[in-house]
Amino acid sequence: MRKLIDYEGEGGKWLTNGWHTVTIKDARLFQYNSGSDGVEFELAASGAKQKIAFCLVDTILWRLADFCKACGLTKAELNGYDVDNMSSHRAMIGRKVSVEVIPDPRDSKYGIVDDWQPADEKHPPPRRTPEPPSRFVEPIDEKDGIPF
For the domain that residue 34 is a member of, what is the CATH number? Predict the structure, then answer.
């Protein structure tokens, strides 16, 4: 029986934009709308949380492998990691990693994990979005400073 009291206070406190050293708190398998299988990890730091998901399709499993290496898995552990076995994903619980949260490009009021690195490495400076170069440079009249 699921009791509502078990879910009290579960919502709302998400990681802010920037770098955070987090602990993996949970893992679950799910299916994308496309029908592809995925794994989602719940990350937590200082009472805030974030989720990160990986598609379990062969052509993109390199992302999960890269994330697992950043979490400290050795080559031997990567060799024994079975992406089709939930126990492999659950073995990630308790591991630490540093993640960068950025605004979700689809809806900037939410954040997504964009990058990760081992928890003991110094965080790189935040990336700044460069100003796009102007496609058209209008000549300016030198006398009055007004574009032609």
Answer: 2.40.50
Q: How far is CA 48 from CA 45, 93, 103, 117, 120, in A?
A: 5, 16, 16, 19, 20
41 CB-contact burial (10 Å; exposed 0-12 / middle 13-18 / buried 19+):
buried
CA distance 100 to 52: 11
- In sequence order, what are the residues at sequence separation of 6 or more whose Cβ sits closer than 8 angstroms to the Cβ of residue 55? 32, 36, 37, 38, 63
**Structural domain includes residue 129:** no
pLDDT block averages, 10 residues each, the chain of length 148: 63 85 96 95 93 96 96 95 95 96 88 92 61 55 61
Q: Does the predicted TM-score (pTM) go above 0.85?
A: no
pLDDT value at residue 67: 97
The pair phi, psi for residue 116, each rounded to 5°, is: -150, 160
What single DSSP character describes residue 11?
S
Question: In terms of residue numbers, what domain contains 90?
Answer: 12-117
